[in-house]
Amino acid sequence: MPDLQLPTNIQFAQRFEDSTITDFKCQKCPLWETSVAGGRSSGKIMRSGVYGRGTGRNGLLIYGEALGHTEIIIGRPFVGDAGKLLSEVLSEIGIVESQSYITNTVRCRPPSNRVPVASEQDICMENHFTKDLPAPDWKPKLVLTLGAVALRSMLHMQKISERRGIFYDSPMFAGVKTLCTYHPAAILRKPELYPILRDDIRRAKDYLNDTDRGDLPPVTNIQIRTRTDFLEWMDYLLSADPRPALSVDIESTGLNYRKDKIVSISMSFYSEDNYVSLAFLTDARPEWWHLNLTDKQSLEFKLLQTLLESSKLTFQNGDFDTKFFWYNGIHAVSNIDTLDAHYLLDENSPHGLKHLVSMFLPKAGGYQQKILEVIGGDWDIQLASVKDLLEYNASDAFFTHLLRDKFLDMLKHQGLKDLFEQHAMPLKRALTCMSYRGIRMDRDRIMRLSETYRKEIKEKEEKLYDLVGQRFKYTSQSQLIKVLYQDLGLPVYKETKTGPSTDKETMEELAKLHPVPALIVSLRHARKMCQTYLDGNDGISEDKGTGILGHLDEYDRVHASFLTHGTTSGRLASKEPSLLNIPRDLEFRRCFIPQQGWQFINADYSQAELILLAYLSKDPSFINAVTSEDLHTKVLRTLVGIDESVPIDKEMRNFAKAINFRKAYGGGSKGLAAQLGVEEELTASWYKKWDAAYPGIPEWMESQATLWQVKGEVVSIYGRKRRFPNLQVLAIADPKRAREQQGYYDRLSINFPCQAGVADTMNRTLRLLHYYLNRIWPWSPSTMYNHPGAVLTVHDELLFESPEELVPDMCELIRGIMSLPLPMIGISLKSEMKVLSTWGGDV
DNA sequence: AAATGTAGCGCC
DNA sequence: AAACGGCGCTACATTT
């Protein structure tokens, strides 16, 4: 229920009650006239000039945008759907709404609910700001602005998504902070933003309660100008006992550690009751000393190397920084990574430093913003002044240090410390090594394959143009649509947001009517292979250099980054290039080869997610099925009642396979019917049979759905959490949307334990193998190619390269680790292993 | 010219 | 209207 308590201050309560068209005298902007539906002359009793509500006792002053339809009828701000959402989020966080003062930037209603223009905003604030408060001498503790309009009006800023969550100085009240966040109406349109709104409101509450004002401890910033200074600081740090943990950050000319150079390095630490941030150059600039990273024999290089290689280091996304260090001859190892820490704490939000600082160190966010304003958003590191560069570098290292302390504490409180230290960080280090090692590719084969595809493209294009009777750009969505649906007059089966669909499924349907769609499908495939996976040259596109070929280093190795934070499920992501979506076509996978004279060992888990589903649900029949010779066949036999002696053909088996996977992903009978091209009645009956055969599974699924709704999270067998939003809030404003969302989260709560369990099992395998190999042959950037190691992982598949003579031992080690029992469940997953001379098999 | 959004498609 | 979970990359189209 909206709060109906009136302001306690009599004088203001009086005005609030009487705030009708008759006593609102302001005519300073055009809105006084248009604010009433049908215009003021219509005689309708509608309110404009509506001031705020609430006592302001808790010190919170909230600015929205302008009056909406409901507001002008009732004559109170924030009483429509957005108001309900605001009430919900305030009560969820524990801010008493009636004690806050809630008003709008513009106190009238713009016609047809348009956004009030800047002049209207400014006129309204100028004329009503001092009057529209709970009492004339009242001063807030915190101003909260909701949405882009209030942000512009109060702080003269744009881009709410970049400014939200940061505490700025209030221009209106001396010594008061302003926090901005999304407008509740925006959340109604994009419910996935709700957690951010909630976090920001919580931040406001913490601020009001003095529990966390995000104050920064004092820090001594040292910009090292001379060699002597540098040597003194190195001496200080190297002889400190105990050696302080260092948070390290680098600035570089670009993102590629093999091509770009480190420009400056900063180290932040806590020593003798003080925070210190050191920063120095590694690139020549006038009047400043710099450490020359190419002179490996110099004293200063050796000191830095010794320090970094023997200290506990913290990075923010150290995958980036450590690879730079390694390439420059310093084997720095990340002990703590604030990015990975945050990923465990909140898998749903971004994990970049800027975002983390704005979320957890709001005061620093303002400071960081100031630096950005000084140096410009897109500064050229070569042109930046040394002072700005080092200040920026040092502040990032300092913030990383503060985040580190904060996150370690939070991980401990959430029972995630072990998962972080024993699992996530060792995995991160193993992945950085794997990426640095890279995987070798067969350049000639790439070129040959690409040539084959280009020939195919040429031929088929000619055919296409002949059929259509004109040359046209079939890669252009708009031209293709014109040709297919206008010129050829084919029927439209499916629509996208922007017009008729031309996707593969639709084209295959259209192929029954005309030869062109099939040609398009095969042309698209050939081009995709060339553009994305081969040399980027499809013979047509102007832009070359796309494709994996463009990622090869001088030894024909590709160094994809494996991200530990790319998913919400604990699965890895891979980029530049992604190695997780390489075509299964063996011709293509043969492009991936081990180093000269070595072998690949390929190990994969079979049907891991379904096995996990079986044991999580504890359904005896399904456990029986997943432990049988062939799961899909077994399921089919059970469903249809075919005896063990009768053989089952592949097509029938695929039916069972489709339904099994849909179960794990939360798919329904309708989708299955569409996929298989059969009636839904049929697939629905299969679903029924399936549920009846394995009753433990629907039961478990129900319980998962209940679990996330009650607890707000589900937890995997490794203790990884998946947090869910509170849909109760959304349901109040938009019940339909909430129901849709609920179905989605129900499916997630089912899929997450399976997907995350398998992902962390694979992650564990990777980390343990790295650990054991490292004990036999300590890993180092300079000697890595002398020893076997992982080169690739694809969710449930793992690829190693190994010298021939070590292959048997490696296989035994891999098999041993892969068959370790799973936590909580105690069973092991089935795995298979192959020795190969290329990823696509022997050639 | 750069940034953003969309469609489409590759993988598990 | 129907609804299958998790990703990244490409080209094209549109916006700034």
- How far is it from the N-terminal to the C-terminal residue, by CA? 72 Å
Q: Return Rg in Å.
A: 31 Å
Fraction in helix: 40-55%
Shape: globular
- State the secondary-structure class: alpha/beta
Tell me the strand percentage band. Answer: 5-15%
Mean pLDDT: 88
Tally of contiguous helical segments: 32
Largest sheet: 6 strands, mixed
Cross-sheet strand order for the largest sheet: 6-9-8-7-10-11
Beta strands, count: 24
Low-confidence stretches: 1-23
Concise account of the structure shown:
The protein has 843 residues and is of the alpha/beta class. The chain is 47% helix and 13% strand.
Would you write up a description of this structure?
The protein is of the alpha/beta class. It has a 6-stranded mixed beta sheet with strand order 6-9-8-7-10-11, sandwiched between helices. The protein has a 5-stranded mixed beta sheet with strand order 2-1-3-5-4. Strands 22-23-19-24 form a 4-stranded antiparallel beta sheet. The longest helix has 42 residues, at 735-776. The model is unreliable at 1-23 (pLDDT under 50). The protein binds a DNA duplex (12 and 16 nucleotides) through α21, β17, α26, α27 and α31.
List the helices and strands and how they pair.
Blueprint: H1 10-17, H2 31-34, E1 60-64, H3 69-74, H4 81-93, E2 101-104, H5 118-128, E3 142-146, H6 147-155, H7 160-163, E4 167-169, E5 177-181, H8 184-189, H9 194-208, E6 219-223, H10 227-239, E7 246-252, E8 262-271, E9 274-281, H11 299-310, E10 313-315, H12 318-327, E11 334-337, H13 338-345, H14 353-360, H15 362-375, H16 386-413, H17 417-437, E12 439-441, H18 443-468, H19 477-487, E13 495-496, E14 499-500, H20 504-510, H21 515-533, E15 557-558, E16 561-563, E17 573-575, H22 586-589, E18 592-593, E19 598-605, H23 608-617, H24 620-626, H25 631-640, H26 650-665, H27 669-676, H28 680-693, H29 696-711, E20 713-715, E21 721-723, H30 727-733, H31 735-776, E22 789-793, E23 797-803, H32 807-818, E24 831-836
Parallel strand pairs: 1-2, 1-3, 3-5, 6-9, 7-10, 10-11
Antiparallel strand pairs: 4-5, 7-8, 8-9, 12-15, 12-18, 13-14, 16-17, 19-23, 19-24, 20-21, 22-23
Helix pairs in contact: 4-9, 4-30, 10-11, 13-16, 14-15, 14-16, 15-16, 17-31, 18-21, 20-21, 23-24, 23-29, 23-31, 25-26, 27-28, 29-31, 30-31, 31-32
The structure holds a DNA duplex (12 and 16 nucleotides).
